[in-house]
Amino acid sequence: MKIEVLRNVFEKNDQAAEQNRSRFDRLGVSCINLLGGAGSGKTSLLESLIPRLSSWMRVGVLEGDLATTSDAERIGALGVPVVQLLTDGGCHLNATLVQHGMESLLQSELDLLIIENVGNPICPANFDLGEHLRISVLSVCEGDDKPQKYPLLFKHVGGVLISKCDLLPHVEFDVDQAEADIRTLNPSAKLLRTSARSGAGIADAASWIRSVVERQPDAVPSS
Ligand SMILES: Nc1nc2c(ncn2[C@@H]2O[C@H](COP(=O)(O)OP(=O)(O)OP(=O)(O)O)[C@@H](O)[C@H]2O)c(=O)[nH]1
Ligand SMILES: [Mg+2]
Predict the structure, then answer these.
(1) Is residue 1's pLDDT more than 70?
(2) Ligand nearest to the backbone CA of 124
(3) Who contacts 16 (Cβ-Cβ below 8 Å, separation ≥6)?
(4) Is 91 left (phi over 0), alpha (psi -120 to 50) or beta?
(5) Is the model's pTM score more than 0.85?
(6) Which mutation among 44, 48, 141 tests ligand 1's pocket best, with the greatest number of atoms within 8 A of CB?
(7) Burial of 208 (0-12, 13-18, 19+ CB in 10 A)
(8) Is the pLDDT of residue 223 over 60?
(9) Closest ligand 1 atom to the C-alpha of 120?
(10) Ligand 1 site, CB within 6 A
(11) What is the pLDDT of residue 220?
(12) Which residue's CA is minimally distant from atom 12 of ligand 1?
């Protein structure tokens, strides 16, 4: 009985995700789903990346959290359109919530919609939101064993941003080992070492995201 309910949840989510993806394709909007543990540095990376990305393309953001609008306020301060999605305790975003949240953002004729998922290394990886690209964030504070312990966070993503690298002198985190473990799970993932604090790797990450967005096909003309 329980298994059946779970399957229905995934099926319903997958249908909504496909609708979202078709809508993005019709409008020529690329969509990124940004995943990572609580406090891994997702919003800080967006604060560093968005000013660069915004000079190339029109960016909007959906912020996913259990509570508060603080992340949306941080992104809004950058001058890009943002909507806060609150899950009221839910541990991940789902495609239906994204469908409602993106409605007003898509009025802004975006090129790129970035969804910051709820901070959680487990559940968000199970839910397709209709994105074209998934990016995971792993901070050096979390431990270099995390790729092995949370494989889903790394397996089906286009790239992994290793964050807070300015803290490497102060923590025990073997970046080479973490990267090798990610490579084992996902040989084609783009791996970038970054720090929102020092700015290291931010230009490379922004250029990579730009190149992925530019490879997306243009809007599909409506017949
Ligand atoms: N030293 C250092 N601290 C950072 C860096 N990036 C983020 N932080 C700090 O890490 C904490 C969490 O950063 P956020 O960007 O809010 O993390 P988040 O992943 O968006 O958090 P949630 O949305 O709550 O999951 C804050 O105290 C940041 O100042 C970094 O590159 N270096
Ligand atoms: Mg955040």
Answers:
(1) no
(2) 1
(3) 94, 95, 96, 98, 99, 130
(4) alpha
(5) yes
(6) 44
(7) middle
(8) no
(9) 25
(10) 36, 38-44, 71, 119, 163-164, 166-167, 195-197
(11) 67
(12) 39
**Ligand 2: distance of its center to the CA of 101 in Å?**
17
SS3 177: helix
pLDDT digits (tens, 9 = 90+) for 85-123: 999 999 999 999 999 999 999 998 999 999 999 999 999
Nearest to 32 by CA among 186, 222, 212, 180: 212
Give 195 Cα–ligand 1 centroid separation in angstroms.
10
Q: Which structural domains are found in the chain, ordered by start?
A: 2-215 (3.40.50.300)
Residues 180, 134: Cα–Cα separation, whole Å:
19
Query: What integer best gives the mean pLDDT of the chain?
Result: 95
Residue 219 Cα, ligand 1 centroid: separation in angstroms?
34
| Pairing assessment for the beta strands 82-86 and 112-116 based on DSSP bridges | unpaired
Ligand nearest to the CA of 164: 1
Alpha-carbon gap, residue 35 to 41, rounded angstroms? 10
